[in-house]
């Protein structure tokens, strides 16, 4: 099960498969839910999720398009771009949940 230290990234090219899986991950405590695709794809994704009963607040948990380098096409650049975004997001989550108390050696 995904906990507060889990990131979930959807890398589908066929985005029709995503909605059913995304509905399931919304109930997890994952600190990051991201999905590949253009801004238009992300808008269509949101519409599909609303059609399946997803609330606006839940749908806002999806970061899309995922990655700090927008428009990254090759696998290497996309991977680094996504990992950089995950590190940045985990830093903010670490501070908000008091990571120093959990892992004092990382203070």
* CATH uppermost class: Alpha Beta
CATH architecture: 3-Layer(aba) Sandwich
* Number of beta-strand segments: 3
CATH superfamily label:
NAD(P)-binding Rossmann-like Domain
CATH fold description: Rossmann fold
Please provide a written account of the structure.
With 107 residues, this protein is mainly alpha-helical. The chain has one domain: NAD(P)-binding Rossmann-like Domain (Rossmann fold). The chain is 48% helix and 9% strand. A three-stranded parallel beta sheet has the order 1-2-3, with helices on one face. The two termini are 27 Å apart. Residues 98-107 have low confidence and may be disordered.
Defining traits:
single chain; 107 residues; mainly alpha; Rossmann fold; three-stranded parallel beta sheet; 5 helices; 3 strands; globular; disordered C terminus
Summarize the structure.
The chain is mostly helical and 107 residues long. The protein is built from five helices and three strands, in the order E-H-E-H-H-E-H-H.
Helix-strand blueprint:
Layout: E1 7-10, H1 18-25, E2 32-35, H2 39-51, H3 56-59, E3 62-63, H4 75-96, H5 99-102
């Amino acid at each position: 099960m995904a906990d507060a230290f889990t990131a979930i990234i959807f890398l589908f090219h066929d985005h029709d498969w995503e909605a059913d899986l995304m509905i399931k991950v919304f109930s997890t405590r994952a600190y990051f839910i991201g999905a590949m695709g253009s801004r238009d794809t992300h808008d269509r994704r949101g519409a599909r999720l609303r059609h399946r009963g997803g609330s606006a607040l839940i749908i806002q948990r999806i970061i899309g398009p995922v990655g700090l380098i927008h428009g990254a096409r090759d696998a290497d650049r996309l991977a680094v771009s996504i990992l950089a975004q995950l590190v940045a997001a985990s830093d903010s989550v670490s501070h908000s949940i008091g990571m120093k108390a959990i892992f004092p050696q990382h203070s």
